[in-house]
Amino acid sequence: MSQATPAPEQPPAGSTAPARRDDGLESRAQGALREMLTSSWLVTVAALVLALVISGVLIAAADSAVQDAAGYFFARPADFFSAAWNAVWGAYVALFQGAVFDPGAATFARAIRPLTETMTWSVPLILAGLGLGIGFRAGMFNIGAQGQIILGAIFAGYIGFAWDLPPVLHLLLAVIGGVIGGGLWAGIAGYLKARTGANEVIVTIMLNNIAIYLVGYLLTTSAFKRGDSNNPVSPPVAGNALYPQLLGSQFRLHLGFVVAILAAVFVWWLMNRSTLGFAFRAVGSNPNAARTAGINVNRMYLLVMLVAGGLAGMAGTAQVLGTEKVLTAGIAASFGFDAITVALLGRSKPLGTFFAGLLFGALRAGGFAMQSRTGTPIDIVLVVQSLVVLFIAAPPLVRAVFRLPSPRGPGAQPAELAAPVVKEAAA
């Protein structure tokens, strides 16, 4: 007798969409994402080193002294290599001094200010990266952190400047409002994927555009626009709703950095110690096995997006309640897109995402010093970030360049994660 196979999961009642099928392109995309997230730390570090080396070549090529020395390269090649080394070394030293510690500063406070700036820049990157990492580990290509940050900033900013509440309660409600705003915006994509099978990449990209134009429109209305300004900017957030400064008014570092640390701890507990996180990982590893084990995969898609959007919305609160203190059309800057790189560099793990966020915060903080002190174009920082994405997305290329051993097999982790699910279901 043939053993009966479980019936496939049906769409919710009232839906006209057909039952979900494993599309070949989507399966290959999930396989590529899984390979990126399961690559070794050695491959990740090698990708970063390779990006810095190639960026160094570009720094040297953009330096005027190197260009002059190239004109008589065959006559005196040592001049060319010396100029190239000085350009690259000077740029990276300036990057370090602008991001970590400036030994030439007049006071100790000025000397450590670069480190505090790095920590400040890293807060939205860490929070948004944690949210994206949850989605990646659940097999969801959430590209909408930019819009979710904006919605979180809109909700938190409005509560911050329009409401009049006691100090602690005001900040707490503003943060909760930001989390709700980001979660609801991401929940749209999760609901559409669960209900109709809509591709979350397309939906979240479109939601990004809607959010950008939405905040621009709101800042022209009487409810959001500052009355004494011709620029599209909101009234300042009330002092009761601001994140407290951690090191005093001379530094921009605020309590949002502590919130980012606590969020990383929460994500670690969620993904590694909770039943819900186990279901997220099971769905990301093998949706069919998870469905066979009785997990409602569509429900998990919705919950993943709600949690991820809530973390991205919290990143928006860090901007409007901590760093900028007002709501502007560019409140999200490019944090939502940079957070994709942060999540991939950190392999979507909380600790890795935290340190990757610090690294990219250092690139942002040090890039300005590199430009002002050495004349190196700040676009080189964007090149470094782009190259990191390129090499993280191509682990075989990095392994080939550094002659690293190949992994045991791309299918190892899905089997390891799917087996406990099926075993628990059988029990």
TrEMBL record:
One GO cellular component term: plasma membrane
Species: Cellulomonas pakistanensis
PANTHER family: ABC TRANSPORTER, PERMEASE PROTEIN, GUANOSINE ABC TRANSPORTER PERMEASE PROTEIN NUPP
Membrane keyword on record: yes
Transmembrane annotation, as ranges: 41-62, 83-101, 121-138, 145-163, 169-189, 201-219, 251-271, 300-321, 327-346, 353-372, 378-398
InterPro entries from the UniProt entry: ABC_transp_permease
Pfam family, one: BPD_transp_2
Domain of life per record: Bacteria
Record's protein name: ABC transporter permease
UniProtKB keywords: Cell membrane, Membrane, Transmembrane, Transmembrane helix
Region listing for Disordered, in residue ranges: 1-25
Protein topology in the membrane: Multi-pass membrane protein
GO MF annotation list: transmembrane transporter activity
Compartment(s) of residence: Cell membrane
